[in-house]
Amino acid sequence: MKSKRYSVYQLFKIRYSFSGFRLAGVVVDEEEKTVQVSLKRVGCTSICPSCKRRCKTFEAFYTRRVRLRDVFEYECRVDFMERKIRCKCGYRGLEELCFVRPYSHCTRSLEELVAGFCVVLSISEASKKFRLDWKTVKEIDKQSILEHLPGLKEFNPVRIG
Ligand SMILES: [Zn+2]
């Protein structure tokens, strides 16, 4: 049992990188087929999403839990502490994290995977496949379309026909 946990921990250490954090723990539930990953902060600065500079002034801390890509049949989640910053540039809000978008329920890596499947699957098929909420998949699909077709943001038809 112990050796299995060790191997999953190693797998996560090799496979995933969470910039600004280090792997603090990996708990495998064999019955539920879940993996719970927890992260610890490294460093005492955060990146401001507005000016991209490092910021040391924090207003609040939030615990976040987001879904990761599954490992085999295991459903994986990651817990970490997120900072709300007050930057010198005037920005106040969530810090920038390279592996997850603000308020998203999934990591960027899982979002990319889901968005890829949304090209060939319907929203409900994709949500079943990834065991994700329908609204979450819909949002991922929407964000992906906006990212790949930035012109659409400005395209706001008032009248059709
Ligand atoms: Zn800033």
What order do the SSEs take from the amino end to the carboxyl end, as H and E? HEEEEEEEHHHH
The distinct bound ligands, ions and cofactors come out as: zinc ion
Helical/strand content category? alpha+beta
Radius of gyration: 18 Å
Q: State the separation between the terminal residues, measured CA to CA.
A: 64 Å
Number of strands: 7
The main sheet comes to:
5 strands, mixed
**How big a fraction of the residues is strand?**
25-35%
The best one-word shape is: flat
- Taking pLDDT < 50 over at least 5 consecutive residues as the criterion, the unreliable ranges are none
Overall pLDDT, averaged? 88
> Helix segment count?
5
Percent of residues in helices comes to: 25-40%
What key attributes describe this structure?
161 residues, alpha+beta, five-stranded mixed β-sheet, two-stranded antiparallel ribbon, 5 helices, 29% strand, binds zinc ion
Question: What does this 3D model show about the protein?
Answer:
By secondary structure, this protein is α+β, with helices and mostly antiparallel strands. It has a domain at 104-161. Helix content is 32%, strand content 29%. It is built from 5 helices and 7 strands. Strands 1, 2, 5, 6 and 7 form a 5-stranded mixed sheet that branches. Strands 3-4 form a two-stranded antiparallel ribbon. A hairpin with a 7-residue loop joins β5 (58-67) and β6. α2 packs across α4 and α3 crosses α4 (134-148). The chain is flat and about 45 Å long. The mean pLDDT is 88. It binds zinc ion. The site of zinc ion has 7 residues, from loops. Zinc ion (ZN) is lined by residues 48, 50-51, 53, 87, 89, 91.
